[in-house]
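Title: Prediction job returns without error message
Component: structure pipeline
Severity: low
Priority: P3
Assignee: unassigned

Description:
Job completed but the reporter wants confirmation the result is attached to the right record. Sequence as submitted:
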Amino acid sequence: MIFEDDPAGDWTAPGVYRCAPGVHRIPLPLPNDGLRAVNVYALADGDGLTLIDAGWALSRAREVLDAALGQLGAGFGDVRRFLVTHAHRDHYTQAVALRREFGTPVAVGRGEQPSLEALNRPPTGPAHRDRLRRAGAQEVIRQLEALGERSFDPADWGLPDEWIEDGAEIVVDADARDRRVLRAVATPGHTRGHVVFADEAGELLFAGDHVLPRITPSLGLEPKPPASPLAEFLASLELVRNRPDAVLLPAHGPTGMSVHQRVDELIAHHAKRLDATLAAVEAGRSTAYEVAEVLPWTRRDTPLAELDLFNAMLATLETGAHLEVLAERGLVTAREQNGIVHYTS
């Protein structure tokens, strides 16, 4: 059964949801309590489908996607291509797994190339260890090392068949009278190669993790992050804000919000966060980890000490990104001592 998408409903509930003519949302499960699900969008494409994002390569996610495609009268062999917004595990790896079986082409933004190439080499230690060390987060590093190396298979991160260039026009259902044209827009920040897909005629934005309706995305969580992920993210938000408004079709959360409205909220959030970060430095906190300890986290204002290890790592890295922007703006001064970056106002 195909449902009409209801922004007020449970966006994580398995099913197939029509959110625009020729566009269906398919939420796939994730193995954690935080995000809970990722939205895959199935676009009618002749006698097949184009999928935007693909989900995490998990047996349960595959089963749910298989059943959903069946509701659309299709199967994995009918997927013409995967257009992936960015190379995070919950968006990319199932596309790679299905390509091995069905030969389906996979495309991702050009900016993801450095990180994907790094992921195709053996890991050399806990992910993001060097950045955490510079942040003064020795306790986080200690806990990560105590966990040992997570199982890692480079085959999960096979390189794509196509690198999507900024501004590329991708035609879907080319033979139809009302063919759909998607414009790829590079939106670095969440990752350096993140892209969104704008259906300008349909006034839709397939936003991936760049614009999320209920949470703020992590910044620079990748093997090869840029020098200033937050600066890139804020510039990408302004870029999207200067485009025509559209209906938000996010990777996590309900559909239907105004893109402009949510972008304004995200910009305001980070402005407030920059103020709080600066106040912590002025109060004597000098490292990213020390600042993160006095800031509230999540929508519940949870202290850093009460976050699980993964989210404590995210919080520390995000704080570092805010401090980098403050330094770029001349509001704080950064100096490195014994491999740790200290900030003063």
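Comment from assignee: result matches the submitted record. The chain has a mean pLDDT of 95.
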